[in-house]
Write a structure and sequence with these properties.
Length: 81
Amino acid sequence: MKTATVLRSELKNELVNCNYVNDGSLAAQVNENIQWAWDNWEIDFSSYFEGIEKPERYTILFMEEWIENEPFDTELSAINE
């Protein structure tokens, strides 16, 4: 049975060096959701990057925090069935 902690760790490891095309995998879906949040949330992103301009692609720090705060309840249910 996979736990949320294990799933989060796996996703972080997959996403840290990859750019996904939507192939339907969970990592690709999470990648798209994180990028959407990066592009659309109206928050102060300055703590997630150095410099003046926000990068086009989300940062590792933002990805890690997003994954840590996502419950993944539905995904874990499907994985553990």
